Amino acid sequence: MPTRPLLRLPNPDSVAAPKRIAPPPHIRFPSKExxxxxxxxxxxxxxxxxxxxxxxxxxxxxxxxxxxxxVIVFEIVGTVANFLKAISKIQGLEFMTEFASEFAxxxxxxxxxxxxxxxxxxxxxxxxxxCFYLAMPDIRALKDLLGLWDRWRRxxxxxxxxxxxxxxxxxxxxxxxxxxQDRIPAETISYWxxxxxxxxxxxxxxxxxxxxxxxxxxxxxxxxxxxxxxxSAGGQVIDEAVIAGIAYHGLLIDLPATEVEHLMRDRNISIxxxxxxxxxxxxxxxxxxxxxETSAGEPVPPMVIPPHGxxxxxxxxxxxxxQGHQLLAGRLxxxxxxxxxxxxxxxxxxxxxxxASLILHGDxxxxxxxxxxxxxxxxxxxxxxxxxxxxxxxxxxxDTIYRAVLRIKGSEGEEAVAPSVFLINFSIGDMRRPxxxxxxxxxxxxxxxxxxxxxxxxxxxxxxxxxxAVSDYLNWTDxxxxxxxxxxxxxxxxxxxxxxxxxxxxxxxxxxALTIGAQHTDSVAVRRALNNAADPFxxxxxxxxxxxxxxxxxxxxxxxxxxxxxxEHVQMQSTGNGLTVSVSSPQRLYGLSAAAPDRLGQGRLxxxxxxxxxxxxxxxxxxxxxxxxxxxxxxxxxxxFADVPPEYYAVLVKTLLxxxxxxxxxxxxxxxxxxPQDPHRHVERMENACRFIGYGVPNVLEILDCxxxxxxxxxxxxxxxxxxxxxxxxxxxxxxxVTDPRSLTITIAWLSPIKPGHQRYRGVLMEAESLxxxxxxxxxxxxxxxxADPSVKRGSVYHEHFDGESAVPFIDDGHLVLQVWCKDDxxxxxxxxxxxxxxxxxxxxxxxxIYEEIQQRLRIRPLPPA
Length: 866
Fold this sequence. Notes:
By secondary structure, the protein is an alpha+beta fold.
C-alpha cells in the first residue's frame, strides 16, 4: 500500500488552443526551364498517344507509360498546400494514397538554411523531404493534366482551385506509373528466392495487398480480376480480407514455383502487371523468437498466494500456454475459438507460457507478488515444423488479429467475451516486415482498434537475429580480452553501421501502441562463465544487441521505453575479414525466470526457465501497466482515482508508464558514435541516440508511490481539435527563491484517430506547455539529455523533462499554469473529442517536503468570486 499516493490535478479551465504553424523547410527548386527540360519529353509522348488513341488502349499496352486506370506516382519535393483538394477538382482522377519520404540532396533540390545574418545557404548534408501522391486517372483526367502542364509552361493562369498544380510542377521530382518494380519490393524477391531454394517443388505462399477502393463494387471487380490472374498463372487464393477502417484489402495466395521463378527473372509479366495490385509481399508470419532456455532453472514450489478473481483487464495474444502449470493454474481465462490447443504440443508451448508467467508474476528472481486478476489469453500461435511457434499459415494474420480483438471487445452481432480488457500484450512481430517507411497494415490495425475501443497495446520492438559485423576486431580472442568499455563502444559502432538492417518489426511502428525494447539487464545472481560467450556492454541502460532499433514513422520516438530483457551475451559467428558475432542462447547466462513447459514431455507442471528479449520486456510492461491500474483503483490505499471512468483507463496508464522514463547519461556515448559530429546538428544527434534508448527506462516504483521530496499530480480529460485545457498546479512554497536543485516532468498521452493512406496519418496532436517559461516559474529549463523537442511532438506521447537550480520568485500566486492543447493534424472531418492523460512531477534533489506542501495546497480550494 503506497504511503504517498498519486495526487489529483484540480479541474482545468477550457481555453482556445494557441495558433501556431511550423514553417516548412526552405528548399531550392529547379527553374521552370529546367523542369520543362526534365518532363516535356514525357508529356509530349503522352500527348501524341492521346491524340491518336482516345480510348487509351495503346497506353495500357505499355506498362511503363502513364495510362488510364493505372496508378501514377507524383513525387513532390517539400509540400504543396491543398494539393489533395486540387486533385479532387479533376474529374476522373481518383486519389489512392500518399506517403512521406526523404532523399539525398542533388543538383536540382537541396534544403537551404539561414545563417545569423539571415542569408540562405545550401545544406547538401541534410535529407530533402518529399511526398509521394498516388492517383488513378481515366483518359479525361490525363488530358486535363496535359492541359494544366501546357498552361503552366506558357505562364498562364491555371484557373480557380488549380494553383496547387503549378506548385506541383515546380516541385516535381518524378512522374511515373506504379509499376512492377514497386509492386515487388526487394524483400519479396529475397523471400521468393529463399523459398524456391528450400522447397523447389512447393507453391510459394504470398500476400497481395490491393489498392483499397471505397466503392464495394470496385473492390469486387478488382478482386475478380486478381482471382482470374492467379488462376491463369496456376495459382490458388487461400484467404481474403477487407478491413475498411484501415483501408486494407488483401489476399493470401499460392503461386507455383515456376511462376515465381519467372517473376524473379522478369517482373513485367503475369500478376505483376495487374494495375489493382499495390504490393506482392512475403506472407506475413508472426513468430515467437526462440528466446527461452528451457533447460535452465529449478522447479518452482506451489504458489501460496491464490488468485483473487475479478474481471480481467489485460489480454495476452500469443501462443497456447501450459494452463495447468503451478504458476498459471487458476489464473488464466483461455479463449480458443480456433481450437489451437489440439494442435499445440505441450512440450512446445514455450512462448505463451513464459509471457503469461511474466505478466502474472514478473521475473521470478525478483519474487514479486502475483497479479490478483486473471489474465485473458487468446492463442494465435502453434508450433511449426522446425519447432518455433507461429501464426496459422492458411489465414491472413491481420484478419486473425482483427477478429480476436473484436471478440474481446464485442462488435455488431457479437457479444464481447472480455469487455473489461483494455491492455493487450503483443510480444510477437512480423520477422518478414521490418519497418522501412510506410506504416504496415498490422500497425494501422492496432492504431485503429486502440482509438476505436480505448485499448493500450503493448508491443515488442522485435528481436533481430541477424549476425553483426564488429569491424574493430579481427578475431574472437581480441574481442573477448578487450577492456569492457572498448568492447562496448565497438559493438555500438557496429549496431549503428547496421541500423537500417535492424529496424523495429511490424507492428512496432504503431502510433498509438507503446513499443518496448529490451534493456540489457536482469537479476541473475550467478552467471555460468562460458569461453564462447561475452557480455557486450558495461551499461545496463543500453538495449540488447538483438533489440530492434527505432525510429518510427515520420521519425517518431520508437521504442518509447525499455524494460529488462536479460543481460544478453554474444558469441563468435565467424572470423576472416573481421569478427562477426551473433546472440547466444541464455544457457544460465542471462534472462528472466518464468514458467516453462516440461521439455522432456513427462507432464511436470513446476518447470521454470530463462526467457529474454523484447518479448519478455513487453510482458513486464504489461505487468507494470496492470500494477499502475491496480494502484489507481486502490481506494482503500488512498487513491483519488478509483472513480475514473473506464474510457480513460488506457490513456492514464499509458501516460504513467512513460512518465518516469529518463535517459541515464549514455546518450553522450551514443551521440559520439552515431553522429553527426557537428555539434550544431544537435537534433540529428538526439534522433540517432533515440534509435537506441527512446525515452529511456521507466522507474515503475516511482509511479506507484511518491516520496517526501517528489510529488506526481495526475489528471485526464478530452479535447476537440482547436481547444485547450488550462491547469493551475500549486507549487511548494519551500522552492521559492532557493537554489536547491529541482526538476519538472510533464507527460501527456492519447490514442489518436488515424487517416490511413495519408502522409500525416496521425489525426490529432497534443502538447503541454507552461503559460510562462519554466525558468521564470520554477527556475528550471529543458533538460539537454532527452529526445529533442521536434521528436517529442511526432508520436502520441509528449514527454519532457526540465531541471535547474535558479532562485526565482513565484508568479501566478505560486502556481504552474499548464496548458494542454489539441490540434488537427491530418484533416479528418468530424474527428470528435480525443481523450488524454496528464502527469506532472515536481521533485527536489534535497530534503524539501514537496509532497506534503503540494498536497496541502491542493486541499485548499479557492473561494468562488463574490
